[in-house]
Amino acid sequence: MLLSVRDLQTHLHLKRGVLRAVDGVSLDVAEGETLGLVGESGSGKTLTGLSLLRLLPKGSGRIVGGSIKLDGQELTTLSEAALARDIRGRKIAMIMQDPMTSLNPVFSIGDQVGSPLRNHDIARGAALRSAVVDVLQRVRLPSPADRLGDYPHQFSGGQRQRIVAAMAIGCTPRLLVADEPTTALDVTIQVQIINLLRSIQADTGAGIILITHDLGVAASLCRRIAVMYAGQIIETGPVRAIYRSPSHPYTKALLAAIPRLGAKRARLTAIAGQPPSLIDPPTGCRFAARCTLRMDKCAEAPPNVTLSDGHSAACWKLV
Amino acid sequence: MAAMLELAGVTKHYRTRHGVVRAVENVSLRVEPRTTMALVGESGCGKTTIAKMILQLEQPTSGTIHFEGQDIATMDRAALRAYRRQVMAVFQDPYSSLNPRLRVGTIIAEPVLAHERKSRAELDKIVAEVLDVVGMPASAARLYPHEFSGGQRQRIAIARALALRPRLMVLDEPVSALDVSIRAQILNLLADIQAEFGLTYLIIAHDLALVEHFSSDVGVIYLGCLAEAGPTEQVFAAPRHPYTKALLAAVPLPDPDHVLSEAAATGEIASAMNPPAGCRFHPRCPYVMDVCRVTAPVLAGTPHATSCHLPVID
Fold first, then answer.
1. Smallest CA–CA separation between B69 and chain A, in Å?
2. Longest dimension (CA), chain A
3. B252 at A interface, C-beta within 8 A
4. How far apart are CA B27 and CA A68, in angstroms?
């Protein structure tokens, strides 16, 4: 297995108390596979991604338990220096949501795309320049050799996201963490970036974790899906199993709550209420307060039930 | 009969240091009472500028906007005051559209106070009533916006828009800042309110599935121009403009077997500062002909109208 995460616990130490942002997350990503980490804001999907790279908010964020193994190497106990040298940007790279803020406005794009290659001693001088042109060609930025000296504001949103992707794949990482890579883009540009991620994966064989709230984007790109709710993965399985036979009441409710093109309904099925606070989360099932199938038993933490090969969900109803 | 709202040849150009931005070009639309017209298009296409002109936050460079047969540009003070209390807006971001220093009750009462003299007791009653309509307890009036979640804040923004019992509501991306599970709550609430108070909606959105679900009529905008307009059902079932087709083909569906098409619109959206000659979509259009590079097409057809040189084949 390329990436194996077991019982990951990441806390944010805030003034108001300790927020259990990631609370016992386990997931696997195989080489060349795309895992969709799907959930709403505050569900812990982004902090799960940031935990892999240990890019947590300074001072407040801390991994307090669990294990992260990349190609069998334990990352949680690795020193910060070793992580920066061998892992971050080298073996695991990240594509952030907003290409407006993830590119530095005062450096040329040639400089920025070249920086991971420089920092990891992959190329220097003329070789660096040609490596940068090469990687910008791979993300299909038009005439890259002429544009190395241009600055981020001289590119459109879609082009900027291509540049961000180029920065991430320059060192041919083993794993790409893409956090809402298309959310800031318009649909006709979004489809171009979705196809770009597909072709990057076909070329490099990298594993991808796609973090998204958009069930459409996840369906179009992922082989497996993990649904997060309130800091935990509540259902995981092959993409068809999740969309065709969702089993956790939250997954079902989420799929019923979105309007679908070409399938007009009189009324959307809303999910009442809102997610619990993760400073003092309920001891049992965290979705119970909003669940229409709630039973007394839900006051206890639900077991993870295996439904079929690779498909499991944490719900008492399935026991 | 006069439409609730009618835009005729509305154009908005902004003069900037770098040149003229042609944000909206010759847009004509009719919104009938108790219907929901959706304006859909990608960022920068001019849909919010159109909303601003309807709300009189911007003046059109040319063209007219009529509300129930009256030109809003030539209304006298009294008519304008009456217009302003009948047209309300709900904005995208409930975090920035509510004043953090005011209590929810004050926020909701503000538009009422701007138009009417009311006693404290009368105001409290109005606030409690509209809070009830949007599914919030009357006690919410004493709290501040930060004490509420995004979905609840959007309910408060809707309550404020409702307080004067308007006839037309402009909804600018009303759910795009909200989480998926909360979106359905707000969309259902908006549908209920529309039925209860006989409201007319103009909704601005980029999410096509939402537009199909929520609207009765739709206008598809590309680079400031209306590419296609008509009853939502017809436009979505049989899109005619290549841009509408491209938009629909690019929407990722929550279905792992759905195949996305990038081929329907290649390249990038041009700048409104320097829009392409002829049809503004022609550089991205897979069906481009010589005429498209030279002559701007005219919106034609009723009720399903298209602005395209291609012959209509249904």
1. 32
2. 68
3. yes
4. 56
Q: Are A66 and A11 in contact (CB under 8 A)?
A: no
* B239: preceding bond cis by omega (within 30 degrees): no
Chain B residue numbers with beta carbons less than 8 Å from the beta carbon of A215 are 180, 254
Mean pLDDT throughout B113-127? 95
- Spell out which residues of chain A touch residue B254, defining contact as CB-CB under 8 Å: 215-216, 218-219, 243, 255, 258, 260
The reply to whether A269 touches chain B by the CB within 8 Å rule is yes
CA distance B167 to B198: 7
Report how far residue B138's alpha carbon sits from residue B132's, in angstroms, rounded to the nearest whole number: 7
CATH number for A106 = 3.40.50.300
Closest alpha carbon to B247 in B292, B305, B207, B302:
B207
Length of chain B: 314
Backbone angles phi, psi at B15, to 5 degrees: -85, 125
| Of the listed ranges A69-73, A137-141, A183-187, B205-209, the one predicted with least confidence | A183-187
Is residue A56 helix, strand or coil?
coil
Helix and strand counts by DSSP (H, E) for chain A? 9, 12
Domain hosting residue A147, numbered range? 3-318
* CA B260 to the chain's CA centroid: 27
Query: What is the count of structural domains for chain A?
Result: 1
**Structure token digits, residue B294:** 């030279």
Nearest CA in chain A to B258: A220
B121 CB-near residues (< 8 Å, 6+ apart): none
Task: State how far the alpha carbon of B109 is from the alpha carbons of A278, B103, B169, B197, in Å.
Answer: 34, 10, 17, 19
For residue B223, report the phi and psi dihedrals to the nearest 5 degrees.
45, 50
Q: Is there a contact between A259 and B213 if contact means CB atoms under 8 Å apart? A: yes
Helix (H, G, I), strand (E, B) or coil at B244: helix
In this complex, the residue of B188, B209, B284 whose CB is nearest that of residue A267 is B188
Residue A195 to residue B149, Cβ atoms within 8 A: no
- Nearest 10 degrees: Cα torsion A162, A168, A172, A178: -90
Nearest to B155 by CA among B90, B88, B105: B90
Closest CA to A90 of A64, A121, A68, A112: A121
φ, ψ (nearest 5 deg) of residue A297: -60, -25
B243 vs B104: CA distance, rounded Å? 42
∠ CA B47-A41-B269, rounded to 5°: 30
B314, pLDDT greater than 70 = no
**CA-CA distance, B240 to A146, in Å (whole number)?**
39
List, in sequence order, every beta strand (DSSP E) within chain B: 5-16, 19-31, 36-40, 62-67, 70-71, 87-90, 168-172, 200-205, 217-222, 225-231, 305-306
Mean pLDDT of B163-192: 93
- Chain B CB contacts of A262 below 8 Å: 212, 236
The proportion of chain B whose per-residue pLDDT surpasses 90, expressed as a percent, equals 83
pLDDT over 80 at A92, yes or no: yes
